[in-house]
Design a protein that fits this description.
Length: 831
Amino acid sequence: MRASARTYAVFAVGVGVLVLVAVLRSGGGAGTVEVFGLPTAGPVTDWGLPLARLALDLCAVACVGTLLAASVLAPAGSPESARCLRAAGWWALGWAVAALAGYVFTLSSFIPMPVQNLLAEPGMLDFGTSLPQTQALLVVLVTTFAVAVAMLVRRLPAWAPLAVAAFGLLPPAYVGHAASAADHDLAVSALMAHLLGVSVWVGGLAAVLLHFRRSADLRVVLPRFSTIALCCFAAVALSGAVSAWVRLDALSDLWLSRYGLLLLAKVAALGVLAWFGRRHRLRTVAGVADRGVRRTFVRLAAGEVTVMVAATGLAVGLSRTPPPPGAGGGGHDHPVLEYALAPFSPGALLSEVRLDPLVLLLLALPAAGYLAGLRRVPGWPVLRTLSWHAGLAVAAVALFGGVGGYARAMSSAQAVQHVVLAVVAPLLLCAGAPLTLAARATGPGSQYGPLADRVPGRRLTRPALVTAAVPVLLLLLYGTPWLPWSLAGYAPHLVTMAVSAGAGLLVSWVVLDLDPLPRPFPWAARVRLLAVAAVAYLGLGTYLLVGPAVAAEWFALAAPPGVPDPLADQRAAGAVFLLAPLAAYAFPAVRLALRRQAARARRPRSALHSSPMDDLPVYDVVLLPPPDVNAEAVRLSRRCAEATATEFVLREDGLYPHISLYMANFTPDQLEKAVALLRDLSSRTSATLLEGESFAANEHGMVELFFRKTDAITRLQEDVVAALNPLRTGLRHRDPVGRVLADHRLTAPPTARANLDLYGYDEIGDLFRPHITLTRLQQRDHPLDLGLLAAPSAFTATYQALALCVMGEHGTCTEIVETFTLDTAPVTPTA
């Protein structure tokens, strides 16, 4: 950083400190009233605590902002991205130091004891581990180290440190001044949303100003940040208004109390920042590539950041200022819930509204992201769009409506909320195919690269883990103290809802199979998964109907007037779990049945047989591509079909893209042995890195993508053939291009004839050319412009999914019998 930049940074921080001091003096937050005979923490703590909090907030905001710039704003390969990461490490260190200082000053204020006396007795510092305020600072301290570790681990996605840093903003909010508000949940939620919005907005602008003001990438970074800043402005304004409503009893408190006047000062600062944002949009965002416009941006941004730092000092001072006497913000006392809860009636489930700013922010982000994808993908199915937003809408109803309010006080309302968040909403969201939309909206040449390639979840989508997700969740939730713990506080309830929704999304993602999966799932595995989830909910519903009371002590304390007997309410919850999930799962069940019926309808027309006397399907041992390559193969197959008439089009839910290794007929008994042999083979075989080499269309009309042949894939084919060839039954009737193999064998070249005689498959050894067949042209001699296709390098990837498929007409893979994961350590290709 140049001397001028350092000078400006010192000036901006100085402005924040001056504003903080002025607010503390005018608002009554400075110093404590000394009472004769009672100890005090002393002036060092009185002034050091708010200054440490200001330092903590500024370092946290800067850390989040620089990580945002590195992982979201900076173009791929930008040198400024690495500089932002280094800067974020230093900001994380400052954040940790400020958290330690805040720990000492907070403990000094609470005991109370002067700092120098506290440090002279180190044993007293352990007392802070039992106080919520200091516990939160210890969590922040651990978070800063986690941020540093996440930046060093290269396997983690670029957004992981940003997510960890964003989490580090929240613990102080949960135990801060908002926690004492009458409507605890609403106040804490508003403050958390406020902190997230402010940190992304302020920190992001500071990072753009410091690290990109002289970069050629500013013309890309600034428009992107401008969109984010507008969203943050809306979030900050809404959450700030909710926080003010919670803390004030009447509108007149705004001008009749010092607390209200400081709130008006914050509103004025927000108005000034809105003016800065409008000036940016009118004068700098579009034309920042011009040098004169860039200077204008730097001046405006410098002034804007100064106002932001001043507003941060004002916010810290406001948190130390007592609210007007008797302020409650409309909240009402409740024995255990700490928020208003009207007497229960069936109509209240529909009429009651409890807006949660933090959850609203979390729902708005996927809605905005989906709309952004729609702008880049014309012709996206309307039903998928409606399904996605319907999923968000039903989740909002369950969270913000009467169900959300009563869910922590009534067993039946909690059951309704759980079913909506864990079953109904996930099915609707996954039916919207968001990952497919992201894959089509982005690509290798886009700003972030192909997003489908970054979808984590290979370990999460292990069949055993996915199948156990719902029953294990329900067993832990209702068979342990988890349920009463989750209902007793805002944060535990939020975590429980997130875990339930996550399990539901995982199951729905696999069952519906509308989006690319990290690993293929056979039809039978999906049916098994759906059946296990349905049986788990049936079992829970039956237990609640006939079993003993669950969390009876909590519901007895929390139930509002008008609730029937708690045990009767539990019986109603059991009925919800018995009926609602089954009704929701009917859609994927019907879909799975229709897909099975379609697969069976295809088989008599297209399955190849070993002889006219035997009715055995042909099985194909294949390598399945990773999700991004799979999506690219499907896209190119569709592009070929748009250019000319084709026999088939690859799909992500059938006619799977694949690389054939070996084809043979098996009886049911032989098939079972083949599966066992392939499972054993996959456990001792490494994944292989394949490089896309060229496209070609042969004389049979097959449009194929060929890979460079390597020793690794040659050995893999040899191992597969050696394992399965002894099991095969006879010679297949036809090959993928439709030739009768018994006739073709008579005229085939010697090598191909020898392979057919020995292995029942000709493309082995020297004749093996690994490839993916994209489609087959109806007019075999019709030339296809291969320029329509992408670069072959788009298919270069690590292939780690071996599968046994049912082979259909034209060599298509119509049904996956079973998949086998190869070792994740790829074999370096050698020719």
